[in-house]
Amino acid sequence: QVQLQESGPGLVKPSQTLSLTCTISDGSMTTIGHYWTWIRQPPGKGLEWIGNIAPSGNTYYNPSLESRTAISRDTSKNQFTLHLSSVISEDTAAYYCARAEYGSPRYWGQGTQVTVSS
């Protein structure tokens, strides 16, 4: 089964851009039905869907974050990347990448903690 691994800084200053990369273990990034997804969980709160990138390369974002979010991919490296701009303290969370199938995340990375603080 596919494995996913997040990487990126654990600490970001307010107003900066958070960039996280997810590396997948196989070449299924363009497989029909696989949607490569970013999800986060702030401390003490539930999971929040950030957005995903489809096999076609189309992107879909949570409306509440859309103005600050961009997801891109590099299929040659089996990677997709989250960019979240103008971060604030409320963006502090555990961030997860996942592969969604039929609308639900099925395979998850282990997650990475990101803290927004000066």
**Whole-angstrom Rg:** 13 Å
Strand proportion, as a percent range, falls in over 45%
Number of strands: 11
Overall structural class, as computed from helix and strand content, comes to mainly beta
Q: Report the principal-axis shape.
A: globular
Straight-line N-to-C gap = 39 Å
List keywords for this structure.
about 0% helix; about 120 residues; single chain; mainly beta; 7-stranded mixed sheet; 4-stranded antiparallel sheet
What does the model show?
This protein is mostly beta strands and 118 residues long. The protein is built from no helices and 11 strands. It has strands at residues 4-7, 11-12, 18-24, 35-41, 48-53, 59-61, 69-74, 79-84, 93-101, 104-108, 112-116. Strands 2, 4, 5, 6, 9, 10 and 11 form a 7-stranded mixed β-sheet that branches. Strand 7 and strand 8 (79-84) form a beta hairpin. The radius of gyration is 13 Å and the shape is globular. The chain starts with a strand and ends with a strand. The relative contact order is 0.32. The model has no long low-confidence stretch (mean pLDDT 96).
